[in-house]
Amino acid sequence: MFEGKCLIVEGRSDKLRIAPILNEEVTILCTNGTIGIHQLEELLDPYEQYELFTFFDADASGEKLRALMDRHYPEAEHLRTMPTYKEVETTPRRVLAAILLRAHFSIHKEYIL
Question: In principle, which of 32, 34, 56, 104 could form an S-S bond with 62, CB 3.0–4.6 Å?
Answer without folding.
Answer: 56
